[in-house]
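Quick one: structure tokens for this chain, please?
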Amino acid sequence: MNDALVVGVVRQAIETAIMVCMPMLLAGLLAGVAVSIFQTITSIQDNVLAFIPRAAAIFGVFALTFPWILRVLTGFSSDLIRRLPEFIK
């Protein structure tokens, strides 16, 4: 297995991981910014108020995007398995 093949597979794996994680990270970021603005306006500094909306946003986005995530990861895995003979050489 040559170096270009290894670099290509690792690059594809990193791109897939970033693509799958991005919706949840963005949801957590947006919920965190919204909660921070709310806390600044109301002067309420409570850790639970900061944590629960972010967790709910991340879980909600995960629930909505789970079928897509499953398709992307299944496609990546099946592509790796299909290319196994190429890796053995």
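The chain has one domain: 3-88.
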